[in-house]
Design brief:
This protein is elongated. By secondary structure, the chain is mainly alpha-helical. Helix 7 packs parallel to helix 10. The N and C termini lie far apart (72 Å).
Length: 336
């Protein structure tokens, strides 16, 4: 028996494998970002600690990286949802290939047909949402994030491959599905991020006993030499703790582009932070002294207290404990 020569274009023969491979890379990337986010670490990025090169960490710790709580930055990070999207795309593209066409041809054909519709819809959704995030990156955060740009290219690749990688009988079907998915994705994205730029109400400073305000987080990129302006005001407790830190010689090593360093500033408030001893470790930062940070700093912020090194944002209670402060503890703000 002579088999008829197949004229199927190579892109259609291998499109599922290509989509699956891209999905695997994207899954690894987003899982890495999710683990770093949940553990409070910093992502590997271009530039060293003493220069303003870690825009990636700034973006991935911004309000846009926490869609369900942009102000408090709690809950699942955006990268977790990205990993679920890549996982779904990988399953949809490769799962039908696991069914033998010789043993179960009908099931194989059914899975291939239905999965292409889902791949197309998911491709439109991921590409649209990535396009929105690229707009945010360019015009709101005004910085670059190679992880974000790479993920956007992956999403665009999914959409292109879903269109040219399958022999569609009805092109109108593509436009119909695309129009619905794009509209739903845009409306959903605007709704999710509608609170990003909402100011934090301080209730005229009236708080119930023991109640604290969650510090506001930035929704724009850090700008040299100060990064972001401190928006919180200091209370009596913050002022007393700051004066105590200065008296005992506790020192904070900071970088203007570091969002965790900004969190530390916000916890103190503008007036108190001006008293806190701190060293700017970037050359283009305000009064930058990077030479003093060499051999001391591995991550930002870093506190040196009585010769001991403490990395990461410290609560004011923790700083009080580390320095033997026993004064007013009625602090105004909290991280969460």
């Amino acid at each position: 028996m002579i088999r008829r020569r197949q004229n199927t274009p190579w892109i259609q023969r291998y499109s599922r494998f290509i989509i699956g491979a891209i999905a695997l890379v994207g899954l690894i990337l987003t899982l890495y970002l999710t683990i770093v986010s949940l553990t409070g670490g910093e992502v590997a990025c271009t530039g060293d600690l003493n220069q303003a090169g870690n825009a990636c960490d700034s973006v991935l710790d911004s309000a846009y990286a926490y869609p369900f709580d942009p102000q408090g930055r709690t809950g699942p990070p955006l990268s977790l949802f990205g990993s679920l999207g890549y996982l779904a795309m990988g399953v949809l593209s490769l799962a039908p290939l696991g069914v033998s066409p010789e043993k179960n041809k009908k099931l194989r054909l059914t899975l291939e047909k239905n999965s292409w519709l889902l791949i197309l819809a998911l491709g439109f959704a991921m590409a649209t949402f990535s396009g929105y995030l690229m707009y945010v990156l360019a015009f709101e955060l005004q910085t670059a994030c190679y992880y974000c740009i790479g993920s956007a290219l992956f999403s665009l690749s999914f959409l292109v491959l879903s269109i040219i990688g399958h022999d569609w009988d009805d092109l109108g079907q593509i436009f119909f599905i695309g129009a619905i998915v794009i509209l739903v994705t845009i409306v959903g994205s605007l709704g999710i991020y509608s609170r990003v730029n909402s100011p934090l109400a301080e209730s005229n400073g009236e708080l119930a006993p023991g109640q604290r305000m969650v510090i506001p987080r930035p929704s724009t990129a850090a700008q040299p030499p100060v990064g972001w302006e401190i928006t919180t005001t200091s209370g009596a407790a913050e002022m007393e703790l700051a004066q105590h830190l200065a008296e005992v010689g506790a020192t904070k090593y900071t970088a203007y582009w570091c969002p965790h360093c900004f969190d530390q500033k916000q916890l103190f408030g503008e007036e108190a932070y001006a008293i806190v001893p701190h060293i700017e470790c970037t050359e283009d930062g305000l009064n930058g002294e990077p030479q003093k940070c060499t051999g001391v700093v591995r991550a930002f912020p870093t506190w040196v207290i009585d010769g001991e090194v403490y990395e990461g944002t410290q609560t004011l209670e923790r700083l009080a404990e580390l320095t033997g402060y026993t004064g007013n503890m009625d602090f105004k703000y909290s991280l969460r």
